[in-house]
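Methods — Computational structure assignment.
A single polypeptide chain was analysed. Its primary sequence is given first, followed by the predicted tertiary structure written as structure tokens.
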Amino acid sequence: MPPRRSPAAARYRQVQGITRQLAKLVQHLWSALTPSRVEEELAGEAGQRIVTAVAAGQLTVAAGAQAFVAAAMAAQGAPGAAPAGVLVASALAGRASDGRSLETLLYLPALTVGARRAAGYSDQEAMLAGLTQMAMLAGTQIADTARIADQVACVADRRVVAYTRVVNLPACARCIILAGAQYSVTEGFLRHPRCDCTVEPLSPGQWKDVPTAQQLFDRLSPQEQQRVFTAAGARAIRDGADVGQVVNARRGMSTPGAVATAEGVTRRGVYGRTARRAGGDFDRLLGQRYSTARAPRLTPEEIYGRAGSRDEAVALLRQYAYLT
């Protein structure tokens, strides 16, 4: 974990604070739902209130990304420089990190409740399972959005040459063995549901003295070591085994993001306005209220995979309205 007063620590506290506030709101709204009508209620006003709250949280964490990166560069003594563009926070809010709409993602707990009730679980058990899933989904979206925004801000700030993964205890074994790993600014961030690892931008020559996997293991109590790594795994590590060899780093880990997103692609949307100015074509499908851009809107993660250079990544982020 970075020093408590560092920009990375402040950023972590900001994201965690928003996640906790959101969890309280979700729990409050969920408590008013009726087990037999939860699918209908989540398709209506109650569900929309949850979606709106998650989108607002996404907007807040995205809006703080460039200030965080600028503060990190200042703390590392990097000379001042204007970023290549201004991050459009609204471009990262309102969509799930896998590209689907928030409404679709956050409706899944309703289906979970229905499936549990059909399987013979009590209403209380079914609703608890749904609430647990909803809290996990909502919190993961806030964390994912913060990391995606931080990476966009890193790409836009040419003083940043790489980022390092900061693991915040308590953490799972998969994250611990990736502690301190350093990546190019356009390399995807491996994470899992509920992952709260964070991005710390690095300026030239500032390879951070972050804890290694072994150091994090040593900080855990024997009980926590066994809980995270299993009794046999913890014993093997204490006997000298390499932490990375005990744990499969990528099991259960993935890089968020779909090839394209439908968020903001109408004529009035943030990407739609950019596409319209560029002379792009629009179609209106049967049943749709607004015309949508014919060319798909790539996600930041897909842009990083396609860009052959940092300059190209910046150009594509601007083209798809993540930077202005």
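Note: The CA atoms of residues 202 and 278 lie 35 Å apart.
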